[in-house]
Amino acid sequence: MSGAPLSGAFFWYDANVLYNLLSLHMSKKMVRTIFTIDEEYDIFQVWVSLRFCGEDEFDLLCKSFGLDIENGEKIRSCSQYETCSSLLTELMHKRYIASKKKLMCAVKMYAAAWDSVNDEFYDTVARVTKYPWQFSLYKVVISPFHKGLSNRNANTVIRSASEDPHEQLRITAHEILMIQLWYVFESVFGKKYVTKNNQFFWAANEITTIAMLGFESKLNALWSDNQKGFDGFLLDYPHIHELKWVLGNEYREKDSFGEYLKQLKKLSCV
């Protein structure tokens, strides 16, 4: 089942060349968001999560996916998805059958909630970064077990069917914005450099995302009261708290996003 494209959309053009020369009513290109159910993609991401998780995350992930430890270990041990895809599909398909009505309802609710922020979100991010959106369409897969996942190399994110879509607008935006920031980082610094310093740029992406969503007034105004601001986010990542405050201050005091990126480059070399 696929969610219908939303009626609202933001149009963009190459910000570096034309952004300040043309009116927003000229040279437009639509950025849309669709909400959908994609069992195959969702189940593949279960394997990705188990395969590459840390030891301290494994038991909790198995529990959240409804898997016993034995099957979790079998899946994690597969170096290629094809090796365990049949077993994993058999196990996870049961969750989809049981959650069918819930998933269909959640798709409609997420789409309705997102329609109120779609244009402002894409518009403001493009204005702030001066980069066009990498994709003209972003796909949000509603899942019975994943809470939130962003795909670095594609236009697809995952959100939970068990969350309140309106209260979770910022988290949906967070996952989409992370895709775009990977694109910006690799465009500015080069894919090879970003890959070499992957841990730093992962942390920088997470922190820059919450900074933009919380410090940019037009974006912060889109979220419910308990989802506004900067301080209360990324609390589950204590190992990046020091960097969070450093980059948060850099972002808040920036003259432009380009200047902020220069500071990122300096810090990545430390």
Secondary structure elements and pairings:
Layout: E1 10-11, H1 15-18, E2 30-36, H2 39-52, H3 55-65, H4 69-76, H5 81-98, H6 100-114, H7 118-129, E3 137-143, E4 148-150, E5 156-160, H8 169-189, H9 191-196, H10 198-215, H11 217-220, H12 241-253, H13 257-268
Parallel strand pairs: 2-3, 3-5
Antiparallel strand pairs: 1-2, 4-5
Helix pairs in contact: 2-4, 2-5, 8-10, 10-12
By DSSP, the count of extended strands is 5
What is the CATH class designation? Mainly Alpha
> Poorly predicted ranges (pLDDT <50, ≥5 residues)?
1-28
Strand content is 5-15%
Number of helices: 13
Q: Name the helicity range.
A: 55-70%
Report the span from N to C terminus. Answer: 48 Å
Total number of distinct structural domains: 1
Average pLDDT, rounded to a whole number, is 89
From the helix content, strand content and strand pairing, which structural class follows?
Answer: alpha/beta
From the spread of the alpha carbons, the general shape counts as: globular
Quote the CATH topology: Neutral Protease, domain 2
- Supply Rg: 19 Å
Strand arrangement within the widest β-sheet reads: 1-2-3-5-4
The CATH architecture designation is Orthogonal Bundle
What string, H for helix and E for strand, traces the elements in order?
EHEHHHHHHEEEHHHHHH
Instruction: Report the biggest beta sheet as strand number plus sense, adding barrel if it closes.
Output: 5 strands, mixed
